[in-house]
Design a protein that fits this description.
The protein has 206 residues and is of the alpha/beta class. It has one domain (7-205): Alpha/Beta hydrolase fold, catalytic domain (Rossmann fold, 3-Layer(aba) Sandwich), CATH 3.40.50. The protein has helices at residues 44-47, 66-76, 92-103, 122-127, 156-169, 189-205, and strands spanning 7-9, 16-21, 35-39, 52-54, 61-63, 84-90, 109-113, 135-142, 173-181. A seven-stranded mixed β-sheet has the order 1-3-2-6-7-8-9, with helices on both faces. A two-stranded antiparallel sheet has the order 4-5.
Length: 206
């Protein structure tokens, strides 16, 4: 059964479904030519982090319960029948989207928009993982994000470039792109996310 707090746009479109993690008010989503499912997240740091990490900062507590979130998705997502499924997210949800792509065979592609690829442990994890099925992957970042005063967050530029490199070497990749946007991490998230979703849908139509 589909949870009552999940929002579905264009349920009549069944050939392509995009699952948007953690974004419930994505401006412009109604214009996408796909079924769009918004998956709410109550506690991002707990539910979307692939590994536990506890830093010194006020908000640097990550409980690493992404696997539990994935298990819930595995139970519900098959209810959305269709030919193609994509997953997308912004920031920590972008990291989770990639994690879901590597850990399951549920999705045909992902959009990691300003993804938190600086996350401790991700580099080591990614070196030993490959896509589980042929997929398209969209990566993007703001051009000021790696100028963060937080030394951990400042690694996001290097880590995102590394992600692109690993994807290009992955035999299962169909196509990947890495786009740079103007601004910092909190600038125009809806606009950036829509660019990623639009790119994925273009791959489907090719």
């Amino acid at each position: 059964m589909i949870p009552s707090d999940w929002t579905v746009l264009h349920p009549e479109i069944e050939d392509v479904t995009v699952f948007v993690i953690g974004e419930e008010n994505l401006e412009g989503a109604e214009n996408l030519s796909c079924r769009t499912v918004f998956v709410p997240v109550k506690d991002w740091n707990r539910e979307l982090s692939p590994f536990a990490y506890y830093g010194k900062g006020k908000y640097d507590r990550f409980d690493g319960e992404a696997d539990q979130t994935l298990e819930q998705l595995k139970e519900i997502i098959p209810a959305f029948r269709g030919e193609t499924r994509y997953i997308a997210g912004y920031s920590l949800a972008g990291l989770f989207s990639l994690y879901a792509l590597y850990e399951t065979d549920l999705f045909d592609g992902a959009a990691s928009v300003s993804g938190s690829l600086w996350f401790p442990g991700w580099e080591e994890y990614r070196k030993n993982k490959h896509l589980s099925k042929p997929a398209h992957v969209y990566l993007s970042l703001g051009d000021r994000e790696e100028r963060s005063r937080n030394p951990l967050w400042a690694l996001v530029g290097v880590r995102t470039k590394d992600e692109e490199k690993y994807l290009l070497e992955d035999p299962m990749i169909r196509e990947t792109v890495y786009e740079m946007n103007e601004g910092g991490h909190f600038d125009h998230p809806s606009r950036r996310l829509l660019r990623g979703l639009t790119w994925l849908l273009k791959q489907k139509r090719r």
